[in-house]
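Final report, closing paragraph on structural work. Over the funding period we assembled a curated collection of sequence-structure pairs, and we close with a single example.
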Amino acid sequence: MDGILFLTELVGLSVYDLKGRRIGRVRDAAVVPLIDPSRIDRFLIGVGATWLSIRYDQVREISLHGIRLADENLTPYHSDDEYILRVVRDLLDQQIIDAEGRKVVRVTDVTFRLERQPGGDVLLIEDIDIGLRSVIRRLVQGVLPASWVRKIQAPIRPHSIDWAKCSILESDPMRRLRLNVSNRLLEGMHPADLADIVEELGPDDREAIFAGLDNETAAETLSEVDPDLQASILESLEAGKAAGIVEEMSPDDARDLLLELDGDAAEDILDEFEPDEKEEMEELLEFRAGTAGGIMNTEYVALPAASTVEDALKALVENEDVLENLNTLFLTGPADRLTAVVPLARLLLQSSSTPLASLASESLIKAKIGDRHSRVAELFDKYNLLCLPVVDDDGVLAGVITADDIISLLRNE
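Its predicted structure, as stored:
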């Protein structure tokens, strides 16, 4: 052998005792992720109608000719063991996520690395096979000798995925916990890529992914998911988890999503909010659809009109969570009325004592809460804006609309 063994070769292999007598044949193999995420911890052997379990340390030798034992103290296998991941039952023909390739794939075969160790041979899951070679192996499994199959597939280029780059789909949250199934790989993906994957999955798998993601990643991903699916995903989650995700979303996105939910579901989620955040969200929900108030974001940085660059820098440090989408500061006068806007880029190379008012844009372009979407889009187009402040009837700053909001609005319309 060349140091590898395929699942299609492993299943059906004869198992021999210390005297070389055949005990039975391999039906499945299992990993115990809490102990080792890739090592085959036990082999499940069919002996007539009975299944026996063989620990990895009871194996002396593994080859295409069979498995030879070093210990015959075998135990019956209980199929309700939820701490193990069975390769045939839980992986073969199942969908998994290729985190590196950013796609959902179906497992056709599995490649094991065979390691010769002093205590006995050990199998480790190396790759998930999805290409033509694995299809051929499946078609002729049990029909042709393994050595022949290897010669037939030799000219074909392998198509596989590193097991370490795969994320298992498990819809049962308790079993995910028992198996120590982590979403670490998914949380490292770009939210737009993860959203594409989520849209390919069924409802149970979508719920499982969002239930396991941290709230920030889940919020960023949900914002990228097709709007037609967003509400159903959120409604499938426990109210506390759903609220944690919504709280991480931008206020305008959160408002739009809550409006799409069933009334009771939205209320259950809002009940999980902190009192101040709940009050703010309820105020946003009152704005009429189709207006500037309905798409504005309440995350912005505003300072008194007499502030300096030093004051602005301190405010930016205090509002680090909104910096990613921030390009403008707002100045307010008496009664919090908007007086000026300051492009953030103008702070560069200025002394700390420079008054912000001296860096303000010459024209103050703003929208009112009740302005229609068409009016808002017209202002962005006419003045080439990156953001647009929104004020109430008294001129008090209420929120801001960004170019991203307008792009999303026009795309949806």
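The longest strand covers residues 22-31. The CA atoms of residues 271 and 278 lie 8 Å apart. We thank the funder for supporting this effort.
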